[in-house]
Structures are given as structure tokens and as C-alpha cells.
Amino acid sequence: MVQHDVDALRDRSAASWMKLFDERYKRTAWPYGSGVWGKREWVAPEVPDSAIVSTDEGGTNLFWAERLGQEIGMTDLWIKQCGTAHSGSFKDLGMTVLVSVVRQSIAEGRTRPLALACASTGDTSASLAAYGATAGLPVVVLLPRGRVSSAQLVQPLAHGAKVIALDADFDGCMSVVRELTRRGLVYLANSMNPLRIEGQKTVAIEMVQQFDWQVPDWIVLPSGNLGNAAALYAGFKMMLDLGLVPRMPRLCVAQAANANPMYRAFVEKRSTIEPIVAKETVASAIQIGNPVSGPRAMAALQAMNGVVEEATEDEISDACARADLTGLYTCPHTGVALAALFKLRQRGVIQSDERTVVVSTANGLKFTEFKLGYHANKLAGVDARRANRAIELRADADEVAKVLQS
Asked: What is the pLDDT along the chain (406 residues), one digit of tens a residue?
């Protein structure tokens, strides 16, 4: 667990912190242009500049989803597009901190792991491999064989990581990497490592900063291993404790119906999450039945007066297609969050004028097979009612004109 001296941080006023963060935001002075390291005093103040491994993470677009909002009767809907990061996912926010701390530790002679290692369904491995390559550190990633998109698989391969595909799901891969960590063979880089949470919590600070330090009413967050829910709460709690914000937003944790242990606990009014065997889902990165950050996420849910919603495969796919038709290009995990939002809006849980941020966790370009499968109507259990297929014609203006006029 990482602890900060909050009393010492109170030596600077809330207004002074906001001014400092704004002066650094997306500037070129190393390392403050990073959305993470621009808040270094709140993240990892002991890491020197020489040890920091950064790819200018953070600073991602907060997109006003005007057309999509109009369709569902909302005037203040926003998408935090974390997938525009260096490796194409929000994982970069936490990985920059973890790899920097390890690099510092190696430089000071305190540790020398054989490799940095993670279990992953795609995005964590891509991010770890990118940061490991930037730092010149060896990386090992354990992936569930045949369950990672081609784009996600090629990322760690391209960065030179040792990629091991196991005949298991994510939970099985996680079990193996934890055992390797216990044996002292690798340094664990999954989100159960609290260093990851320190970086990921900056997404909360950044979105408030992008709203000129105003707090949204709702945040809808797709989550599988639940580390991002814990991180989001950590960011808001720190801002609240230091007087930068007067309140917390409400939180919706969105899960795929095929991998929904937190949703089950919420519906059954349980304070603990019981592991399940996750079924296959198009939202492959959150196909997790035994989330390692469950207790922290449940604490976050309670503190943020939150709810948990689920989405079926058909609802996920349709939500993606619907959003794409308004100019977005959503990964299936963002589709989980959007489908949850649609349900909450329909039931009146989220009001029409409440400022709502959907966290988009990955770049839609990583999921070409999913997109093509939808528009070819080849996804099992999915009614591709918004499918759009290319029209093939001879190179003849009259034939094209007929199509245009039909």
C-alpha cells in the first residue's frame, strides 16, 4: 500500500495546487507534460527525474458526446478517451509509475528482478511491454491463448517482450504470475501492485481539471479486475482531502454479464465479491471472474454512493455500433459502459441534465475483428441491427448513381 503525507501536502493551498497543475499541464518541461508526472507530488514524489519512464501519458481527450447525448436525452454527456494514450489504453497511467519506481530501485541497487511480468488480456501486456522497452528492462507477459485480439498480441511482440500464451483464462494466467512472483523470479506489474493505482488515480484529477476543477455528477466505468474503480476513488478522495473539490461524483461500475462478479454481489447486497468462472465475452479485457482488486473496489463503490450494472453481449455490441454512428469509435469495453449508461438513463437513475463521464479505456482500433464481425453479422448471440456492409460494384458511374439514388 502506498501512503502519502496528506498533512504535509496541506502546506500548499487548494488554489495553489490547482494553479501548479494547470501551469504544468501538457507543457514540454520534463517530466511535467505527462498527465501523471505533472502531479508527481501526489503520485511518487521520491522518484528523481533520471528514473522516470514516461511516454507523455495522460492529457487524453474529454470528448463532448453531443449527438449521442441527444439520442438518450442528455445534455452533458462526455467520453474520457483514455485509449488515445501511447499504447492505446488507460493502463499507461499506472505503468509509468510502476516502471519508474522499479528503474529507480535497480539504479540504487535495491532490486534486480529477472523481468517485469504481468498476466493480461491484452492492454496491460501492451503497456508493460512499451514501458519496459522504453526503460530497457526485460518483460514477460502471460496471455490466455486465443483470447487476445491480433492488435493486442502484436504490441508486446513488437516491443520485444517474452510472450507466453497459456491454455487458461485470465484468472489462470494471474494465478501463475503470482506464483512466479512468490518465487522471486519476476516483479509483478498487475494492478494489485499499488504503484499502478497511484498513476491510474490521476484520471480522476485530470477530468476534474479539464472541467475547470468542477466535479461531474456521474462517472461510468467499465471494469473487470476492478483496479480502475479503486484508482478513481483514490484520486477523488485525495482531491477531497486537500480541498480541491467539495464532493465525490457517483460511480457506476459496468461489467459484462458474462463476467459479472461485482454485479452479482451488488444485486445480492453482499459486501464481498465471490469468484466466478467468467464466460467468453466480446469485452475480452474484462473477462475476469476473480478480480484481485475486489475489496478496494467495493470500498470505492460505497464511498461514492455507487451502483453496478451489467450488459449482455448484444447490448455491448449494439452500444458500440450506436456510439460509432455518432462519430465515436469504441472498444467493446467502452460498449459495456455505454450499455450500462443507457439502462441507467432509461430507468431515470441518471437525470437528463446530470454531467456524466464515460471512461473509455482502450482504443477501438485494437478490436478490428470485433468490428468486422459485427458488421458482417457474425457475432454469436448478437443481433447486428446497425450493421453496415460495403457495396461492391463495377467501376461504372451509372451503377453508382443508381445506388446513390435508391
From this structure: 688 999 999 999 999 999 999 999 999 999 999 999 999 999 999 999 999 999 999 999 999 999 999 999 999 999 999 999 999 999 999 999 999 999 999 999 988 888 999 999 889 999 999 999 999 999 999 999 988 888 888 999 999 999 999 999 988 999 999 999 999 999 999 888 999 999 999 999 999 999 999 999 999 999 998 999 999 999 999 999 999 999 999 999 999 999 999 999 999 999 999 999 999 999 998 999 999 899 999 999 999 999 999 999 999 999 999 999 999 999 999 999 999 999 999 999 999 999 999 999 999 999 999 999 999 999 999 999 999 999 999 999 999 999 999 8
- Look at the chain and report how many structural domains it folds into: 1
d(CA 195, CA 187): 12
Determine if residue 137 is left, alpha or beta; phi over 0 gives left, psi from -120 to 50 gives alpha, anything else beta.
Answer: beta
Residue 108 lies in a domain: no
Whether 19 is in a domain gets the answer: no
Q: Establish if 218 belongs to a structural domain.
A: yes
Which is nearest to 360 in space by CA: 78, 125, 80, 36?
A: 80
Domain that holds residue 259: 62-88+196-365
CATH of the domain at 80: 3.40.50.1100
DSSP 291-304: -TTHHHHHHHHHHT
Q: Is 341 within a domain? A: yes
Q: Using an 8 Å Cβ cutoff, are 176 and 142 in contact? A: yes
